[in-house]
């Protein structure tokens, strides 16, 4: 009987995690593109990370410290020798405010977000990939949800 109870709890927990992941994909929908596909080895190209954000939700930007308060969006690249990161991630026109809950200045996006970074391509058959980690919040519902999304340019 105990085993059945544990199995039921695990199934319930797994379904809750899958539902949360699906909801995150609905809340923030990411797109990835490279600006110059006609390049020579050694050229610098720009990576564009863009997302649409469901109405009512906010995505925190990458240009503030996450020491206290909401977690900024972080881009982690997996190094593989086919590219070199030439610039930090740059958020494009985030909104800014003092967060009343945390008493700190934050930047964030509503409806859509865009981040850019430059990389130097070392190999013609490049493979640029990694993970985006961040947090989205719904002001009216009073909830914040962390997320993790993989990205790839190849």
Automatic annotation (TrEMBL):
Pfam families associated with the record: DsbD_N
Keyword entries, A-Z: Signal
InterPro entries found in the cross-reference section: DsbDN
Ranges where the Thiol:disulfide interchange protein DsbD N-terminal domain occurs: 41-151
Taxonomic superkingdom: Bacteria
Leader sequence segment: 1-19
The name this protein goes by in its record: Protein-disulfide reductase DsbD family protein
Organism: Flectobacillus rivi
């Amino acid at each position: 009987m105990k085993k059945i109870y544990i199995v039921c709890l695990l199934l319930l927990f797994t379904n809750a995690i899958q539902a949360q992941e699906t909801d995150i994909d609905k809340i923030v929908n990411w797109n990835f593109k490279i600006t110059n596909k006609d390049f020579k080895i050694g050229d610098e190209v720009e990576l564009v990370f863009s997302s649409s954000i469901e109405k009512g939700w906010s995505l925190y930007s990458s240009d503030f410290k996450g020491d206290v308060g909401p977690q900024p969006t972080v881009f982690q690249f997996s190094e593989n020798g086919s590219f070199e990161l030439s610039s930090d991630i740059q958020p494009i026109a985030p909104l800014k405010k003092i967060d009343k809950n945390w008493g700190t200045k934050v930047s964030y996006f509503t409806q859509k977000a865009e981040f850019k970074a430059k990389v130097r391509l070392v190999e013609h058959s490049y493979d640029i990939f990694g993970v985006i980690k961040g947090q989205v919040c719904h002001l009216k519902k009073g909830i914040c949800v962390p997320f993790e999304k993989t990205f790839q340019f190849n």
